[in-house]
Amino acid sequence: MSNFQIGIHLFLQLAVIIATCRLVGWLGRKFLGQTQVFMEMVAGVLLGPSLLGLVAPEVQVWLFPKQLALETAAGTVQVGHPNMSILYALAQVGLVLYMFVIGLEFDLSLLRGRAKTAGLVSGAGIAVPFLVGAALLPVLLRRSDLFHGDVSAPIAWLFVGSSISITAFPMLARILFERGIANTRLGTLTLAAGSIDDAIAWCLLALVLAVFHKTPETAWMTVGGGVAYGIVMLTAGRWLFAATFGERFRQRGELTMDAFTVVIVVLMFCAFFTDLIGIYAVFGAFICGASMPKGRFADRLTERIEQLTTSLFLPMFFVYSGLNTKIDLVNTVELWTLTAVVILISILGKGVACMVAARVTGESWRHSAIIGVLMNARGLMELILLNIGLERGVITPTFFTIMVLMAVVTTGMASPIYQLFSRGLVLPGARVPGTREPLAAEK
pLDDT band at residue 235, thresholds of 50, 70 and 90? Predict the structure, then answer.
């Protein structure tokens, strides 16, 4: 296959992905009360082997081929199809750009006096899932088809705990934006707790893989590097960005192409660094955005980045992950029962625990329930974590599928239950859903 043919096929893939995501998103919003972000996750599953691959397997394989046959002197060799690598790379760029925009909106001043709540919600969202994971572990270890044989009980427990405790941080951010509460105190509090949860979960995953592969220095580099990066960016980085980008913007009154280019270079380096030390790139992008000057400078950056990112790049992230999900591996009554138990325990261990923690710190039951529901969504951060565990030989495809179903259910329930709890609720700083326009009452 020539580079010309690869390019033509890529354009067709992009057209199908974008059109499917918009159509499925519209149907979900109109008839199911779902968000565009969740429906893009569903669209990825629909385009993958779980549906299109069952209904029209030849079409699915032709449209999204994973293997390419190469003729060599030794015969025909199957290699990874370059189009899938291109889709993956574009998806990562989109995710990094989007999380940078979320960081630009992240107002640290809204957390003044709320650190106790964010810390306690985050702590409950980590500690309780590990406790319920310990209770679930004997049931899981009785089966031989969930973990690979050389995985010890402590490693299995750490992996299960990380999987249950993780929050769908990118999806959480987009749900909050689509509901118009991303920059409210409640939205900021939820984002802060979710980001802390996921950072800890990724550090724990790094510890699992380091111990499993007998490379403890990797875990120390992840934890130490992540903490150092956050401290430097939110202190010296904020001062430096304010003194350069912010001051020049005030002097010129516009965002020049040179300044925009430098910002993108800084963003990509931050994503590279956090990926290098073992923490997912979205956190590097989010912290980078949070460190940038706020006000009109952040607004101009957002205008330049957001629309193309959400309409073109970000759907590729969700669809690419959905293409790697195969639901039909759960094919017995016992496995479906186990899946139901995992889902129930995950909801109790994460959503209910975060709700109670928020209530203990003084939030109303209504706000606490909203926080618990949003924190309970796991989405594709869960899928990323599960894919790593599968590729590194910690879990089997069967357990991978069970946990994927848990991620789909907990993410899908977030938006309808949020709508139920938030009916008639007006939060200071809220905007028109899916836009950056303030509510009429605040204009």
Answer: very high
Q: What pLDDT digit, counting tens, does each position of 299-343 carry? A: 889 889 988 888 888 888 878 777 777 787 888 899 999 999 999
Q: Give CA separation, 418 vs 226, 385, 439, in Å.
A: 32, 25, 19
- In sequence order, the β-bridge partners of residue 151 are none
Type of residue at 238: R
CB atoms under 10 Å from CB of 150, counted, come to 9
345 C-beta neighbours (distance < 10 Å), count: 19
- Report how far residue 99's alpha carbon sits from residue 283's, in angstroms, rounded to the nearest whole number: 8
Our measurement of the distance from residue 128's CA atom to the centroid of its chain's CA atoms, rounded to an integer in Å, reads 21
Contact (Cβ atoms closer than 8 angstroms) between residue 24 and residue 43: yes
Encoding tokens for residue 229? Answer: 């990066």
Helix or strand run (H / E) with residue 439: none
CA gap 336, 342 in Å, rounded: 10
For 37-177, strand residue ranges (E) read 67-72, 75-80
Largest CA-CA distance found in the chain, in angstroms, rounded: 72
Report d(CA 111, CA 127) in Å as an integer: 22
Cα–Cα dist 126/196, whole Å: 10
**Nearest-angstrom CA–CA distance, 317 and 6:** 19
